[in-house]
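Quiz preparation item.
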């Protein structure tokens, strides 16, 4: 087969983190037609294999492009006032019960046009890209009507067309009870199941469906109805689970073969076992834990013991985690949750990809899609150790150089 020379790219002497492990010796990496086609350690590489390849770099640390598997990136307005209230001692749940919190972002998001939402979201997206993200999940959940949820999902899809990033979308209609359904949460869940999910599925706007199972949101029985509707429409499932209390939502998600249970500070061993048996990924969100000044730690040791894969994500949102800085989130995962730097980095690469049902992403193997980052550091652990923007030397998306310093 003849090769198109401009599509072959080569990196030499990189320290390689492949999504799960750091390779022991410096590696040479060859990319062709958007895929990794060769990985050699020193001594294995034969110069004729570099024929017609563009030399793109030497040295540094190469990782898979970062996979941020949980974000609420699309929204209007901000919640700085609520941040100040929380600092004065008002809790997240109290603010929510008083009609603020998520519902305050719902008011701003409903009032915004698609163009305004794109414009508001692009700087946040650009910040994620500049720190190495190549795959991003974006949830709806600030529309809470059929039209406004679909509007958010369309904006999310549009962001993926405007920038070199893979965007996966998640319908989070069951995020909060909108004011027009006050006192009728079952009626709202019926709308989510009978209208929102079918419409999002028919228009191809959602890759998955999420729920917020919590005393300030929806009950396990209501979330189960949402899962059943999602399954009828062939959509993957995930849950905001055990964030403020133990509702058994992680086990419920596992029972429905959910891709992930996210937050999970209050998860117990039975929930961990259910996740292990189902292959449901634990998504850790240390940004939200930090911003809410939570004290209940997720059960990291139990997750390790039962071999539940742990993903790490930004949860970028205007309330609990206004953070668009993925390597800061790696640092928080280590400092707050005591993950090792390798665990944190796997959480934002290989395991983040599994939480999205895309195990082909977040790895560097022969045959992997060439979504890669080249960092100006000596060893992968530095990504979690130092909080320092500007270390991304190159970002490679589907084999193309998209950021080069
Ligand atoms: O992941 N917990 C619910 N949902 C978001 C927060 C949304 C918000 O406060 O705007 C979360 O923390
Ligand atoms: Fe979230």
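Solution:
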């Amino acid at each position: 087969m003849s090769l198109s020379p401009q599509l072959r790219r080569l990196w030499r002497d990189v320290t390689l983190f492949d999504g799960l492990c750091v390779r022991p010796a410096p590696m040479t990496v060859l990319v062709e037609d958007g895929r990794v086609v060769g990985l050699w350690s020193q001594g294995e590489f034969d110069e004729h294999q570099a024929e017609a390849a563009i030399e793109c770099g030497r040295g540094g640390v190469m990782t898979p492009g970062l996979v941020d598997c949980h974000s609420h990136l699309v929204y209007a307005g901000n919640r700085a006032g609520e941040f100040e209230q929380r600092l004065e001692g008002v809790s997240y749940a109290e603010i929510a019960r008083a009609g603020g919190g998520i519902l305050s972002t719902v008011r701003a998001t409903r009032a915004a046009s698609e163009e305004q939402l794109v414009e508001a979201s692009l700087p946040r997206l650009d910040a994620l890209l500049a720190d190495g993200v190549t795959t991003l999940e974006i949830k709806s959940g600030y529309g809470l009507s059929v039209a406004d949820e679909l509007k958010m999902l369309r904006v999310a899809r549009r962001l993926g067309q405007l920038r070199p990033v893979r965007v996966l979308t998640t319908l989070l209609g069951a995020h909060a009870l909108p004011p027009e359904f006050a006192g009728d949460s079952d009626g709202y869940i019926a709308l989510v199941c009978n209208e929102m999910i079918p419409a999002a599925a028919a228009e191809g706007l959602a890759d998955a469906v999420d729920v917020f199972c919590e005393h300030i949101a929806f009950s396990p029985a209501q979330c189960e109805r949402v899962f059943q509707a999602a399954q009828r429409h062939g959509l993957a499932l995930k849950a905001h689970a055990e964030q403020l209390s133990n509702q058994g939502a992680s086990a419920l998600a596992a029972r429905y073969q959910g891709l992930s249970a996210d937050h999970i500070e209050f998860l117990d061993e039975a929930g961990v076992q259910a996740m292990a048996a189902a292959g449901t990924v634990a998504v850790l969100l240390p940004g939200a834990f930090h911003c809410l000044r939570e004290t209940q730690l997720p059960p990291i040791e139990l997750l390790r013991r039962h071999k539940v894969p742990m993903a790490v994500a930004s949860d970028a949102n205007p309330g609990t985690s206004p953070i668009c800085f993925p390597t800061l989130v790696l640092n928080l995962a280590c400092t707050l949750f005591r993950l090792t730097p390798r665990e944190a980095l796997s959480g934002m690469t290989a395991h983040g990809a599994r939480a999205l049902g895309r195990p082909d992403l977040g790895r560097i193997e022969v045959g992997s899609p060439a979504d890669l980052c080249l960092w100006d550091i000596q060893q992968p652990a530095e990504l979690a150790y130092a909080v320092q923007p500007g270390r991304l030397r190159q970002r490679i998306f589907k084999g193309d150089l998209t950021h080069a310093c």
